[in-house]
Amino acid sequence: MTHRFTVFLAAAVLLSGVGEGMAAEGGGDALPLVAREIRAQVTARVATTLSSPMAGRIRDLSIEDGDRFKQGEVLVRFDCAVQEGQHARAVAVLEKNRQLQEVNERLRKLGSVSVKEMNVSHADVATAAAEAGITRAMVDRCTVTAPFAGRVAGVSVKRYQFIGEGQPMLDILDDKQLELEAIIPSRWLAWLGVGTGFQVEVDETGKTYQAKVSRLSGRVDPVSQSVKIYASITGASGDLLPGMSGRALISPPENTTGGDAKPVEAKPSDMQPVGKTP
Known about the structure:
278 residues, alpha+beta, Elongation Factor Tu (Ef-tu), domain 3, CATH 2.40.50.100, six-stranded antiparallel barrel, four-stranded antiparallel β-sheet, 3 helices, signal, MFP_Cation_Efflux, RND family efflux transporter MFP subunit, RND_pump_MFP, transport
């Protein structure tokens, strides 16, 4: 969906640039830059897909699409009776080798055990400890915990389902850290930069929100002569969800007629929406 949105924006910017070029050819002077409607999309800055760390059957999946969770909360638990049994066996072997090592150390003091036998005893303990560590790691993979606090955006598996290693299970995101993405004509970079303020009208809520450019993409699309910008929402935005979209009303500074103007910082006057020009 994001890819289609990006392609749509790039096409819109390209068509806009063609129209400007035709207008410039028709008249002798360059046309002044005016406020223009730019489509913007709400996205989550922190989002990821949790995949299965192992092949197995899901024993517990109590979370559903739209549910909230805390950092470190168990989201998925696998049936790991075999892995737990292997770990218990490895721990028992480690304990046995440690007790044998203690006995050999006492016998060594009495001269009843050679140095070679002591070295073998130490190696047995180290080997058993490594095996216990491996099985402990396998057991730890039986539970999938939340890497951050947030919300479930999609569930791809079901409880009791057997899935393979690496299979996607959950789409999660932090809906408290939202930002806007938009594509603008690259020549706007002459006056638009980090800190430029604007307004965005979100279609789904019917409300207007204050925003400020937080960063720019690292490259310009040479075909459409456009560039992606990212903006942070500076005001209240508790009713926004990732995927919502709307109109970004970006106004150029006064007396800007071409590409020689310098980037400007956000000003109160920049925050006022401007309607379309004929």
